[in-house]
Specification:
Layout: H1 2-8, E1 12-17, E2 29-36, H2 39-51, E3 56-59, E4 65-67, E5 72-79, E6 84-87, E7 93-97, H3 102-111, E8 114-115, H4 127-133, E9 136-137, E10 140-141, H5 142-145, E11 146-153, E12 156-161, H6 173-177, E13 181-189, E14 191-192, H7 195-212, E15 217-218, H8 231-237, E16 244-245, E17 248-250, E18 258-260, H9 266-284, E19 293-295
Parallel strand pairs: 2-5, 3-5, 4-19
Antiparallel strand pairs: 1-2, 6-7, 7-13, 8-14, 9-10, 11-12, 11-13, 15-18, 16-17, 17-18
Length: about 300
């Protein structure tokens, strides 16, 4: 720890509970939490970890992740790099660092009369997570808006065009290969439009999401939708909607959301995940694939 403090100074904290940094409000402590406030600080942190052989895990907005009750060994880098620029021209572009909250960017674009990100108005998480997992909603996704992303790969910075990320449904080259590459920033293609019409579309999406998804602490959609079907429909048809283990519930509003009703353990969420996968496989011969990431020490 003395060596780490010499490297990172006040950016570093010890034995920090991660639950407050996740949308599900679940998770044990990080041995070390390292908070970065810019893409340059993120590069320095990652390069330093690589140079000294220090294991690390990235954490952004804390959506789409389940952190174990035992927490995370090594270093958790908390990404708070949030710089944003809107660049005008024949085709306007928004550049944002990877720790910026994606839904906030959609609202900022709307105020400027820039269309293209309305679908993201109620999408949780940060730019980094959205680029990594090809976040999407209401017929839109990152793959259709992204121009390029700045990636730190094996300690080197470079810009990847959207084609190199090889996007698919809620996945990318980074996610499929679990590459040790970090999203630093991204550029998104926008277009000029009416601020009033853009806001009206966003309001409609937000209203629809509130009507169909549960309130409270959750990770977002638990499973990817299988081809030609919906994970929530399958879980409900399997008779699991509303089922609870401890204070963890398969939501009675939408069965693809698992809700923390207070002091919920990650292990109870994990049990519900495994039960849903086993039951849906048994009844319908469909293997549900996780959309969330499971991180930390589980054994």
């Amino acid at each position: 720890m003395t060596d780490l403090r010499a490297l990172f100074g006040e950016m570093l904290q010890e034995q920090v509970p991660l639950a407050p940094y996740t949308s599900a409000r679940i998770g044990g402590p990080a041995d070390v939490l390292l908070t970065v406030g810019s893409a340059d600080e993120l590069v320095h942190a990652v390069q330093t970890c690589l140079e000294h052989g220090l294991p690390f895990v990235m954490l952004g907005g804390g959506a789409n992740v389940l952190v174990s009750d035992k927490g995370v060994r090594g270093i958790v880098i908390l990404n708070r790099a949030k710089a944003v620029e809107f660049r005008s021209g024949a085709e306007p572009v928004m550049w944002a660092e990877s720790g910026a909250v994606f839904s906030n960017l959609a609202h900022r674009a709307a105020v400027k009369g820039l269309t293209g990100l309305e679908w993201a108005a109620a999408v949780p998480g940060t730019v980094g997570g959205a680029v990594y997992g090809n976040a999407g909603a209401f017929g839109g996704d990152v793959a259709h808006n992204l121009v390029r992303a700045e990636i730190l790969d094996e300690g080197r910075r470079s810009w990847w065009p959207v084609e190199k990320l090889d996007y698919g449904y809620r996945t990318s080259l980074l996610k499929r290969t679990h590459a040790a590459a970090i999203v630093l920033s991204a550029e998104f293609r926008l277009a000029f439009g009416s601020a009033e019409a853009i806001q009206a579309t966003m309001d409609g999406f937000t209203t629809q999401r509130k009507a169909t998804q549960p309130p409270g602490a959750s990770m977002g959609s638990m499973f990817k939708n299988p081809p030609g079907d919906f994970a929530g429909r399958l879980i409900e048809a399997a008779g699991l909607k509303g089922l609870r283990i401890g204070n963890a519930e398969i939501s009675a509003v939408h069965a693809n959301f698992f809700v923390n009703h207070g002091q919920t353990s990650a292990s109870d969420i994990r049990k519900l995940i495994e039960l849903a996968q086993h039951t849906v496989k048994e009844k319908f011969d469909v293997q549900l694939e996780l959309e969330i990431e499971i991180i930390g020490e589980w054994e």
